[in-house]
Design brief:
With about 210 residues, this protein is mostly helical. The protein has 8 helices and no strands. Helix 4 packs across helix 8. The mean pLDDT is about 90.
């Protein structure tokens, strides 16, 4: 077997392990309750083969956290490209976020749980992914309104992300009708926060001018 084929096979098996772990997560089952043996069995490999791909379950979990955060950020970047073609920034962003929750609920569960879990390494990794999300949104806020300072953009971004993630945690256990109503409320809340932030920024800028 050539080096290239072996590398592809190794990547395929690593992917199968990550997918197997995600598939086993649920509302009742968190990552901390998964066993290496369970994950290996679902991935179709021997438990001893697991160690060729990950040092331990913690390393697997950290890889899953990184992937979850990356996919969420990529989806929101795509949403911002859709916004350039026309449409409401808030509505398209909320729709995209809820699509992520509906299509990849276990990824969102992982980010949500591990940001306040018992493992410090996981908390740090999940918080880092959420902060990446906040930072990208802050950059977008400044891009749309260059008058807003970096500090105010970060504060606004943190508020928007907190609202959305809190709503997402509720949406996981809702039916389609309940989610639709929740989305309407979230859109309204985000618009109120953004409008207030815009007025606050304008007033702050005026104070500096008056000085």
């Amino acid at each position: 077997m050539s080096v290239g084929i072996r590398a592809l096979q190794k990547e395929k098996t690593r992917r199968a392990l990550v997918d197997a772990a995600f598939n086993q997560l649920s509302a009742e089952k968190s990552f901390s309750t998964l066993s290496l043996r369970e994950v290996a069995r679902e991935a179709g490999i021997a438990p001893t083969s697991f160690y060729r791909h990950f040092k331990d379950m913690d390393e697997l979990g950290l890889a899953m956290v990184d992937e979850s955060g990356l996919i969420l950020r990529q989806l929101m970047r795509q949403a911002r490209k859709r916004i350039e073609k026309g449409g409401s920034v808030v509505v398209i962003s909320v729709e995209t976020f809820f699509e992520f929750i509906e299509e990849r609920p276990n990824m969102f569960r992982l980010l949500l749980r591990e940001s306040s879990g018992t493992s410090q390494a996981f908390r740090t990794a999940a918080s880092r992914e959420i902060q990446h999300f906040v930072a990208e949104l802050a950059e977008y806020i400044q891009l749309r309104n260059p008058q807003v300072s970096r500090e105010l953009a970060c504060i606004e971004s943190e508020g928007l992300v907190t609202i959305v993630f809190t709503a997402g945690s509720h949406a996981l256990d809702m039916n389609a009708q309940e989610r639709a109503k929740l989305k309407e409320r979230v859109v309204m809340q985000l618009r109120m926060l953004a409008r207030g932030a815009s007025i606050y920024a304008a007033n702050t800028a005026q104070l500096f001018k008056d000085d």
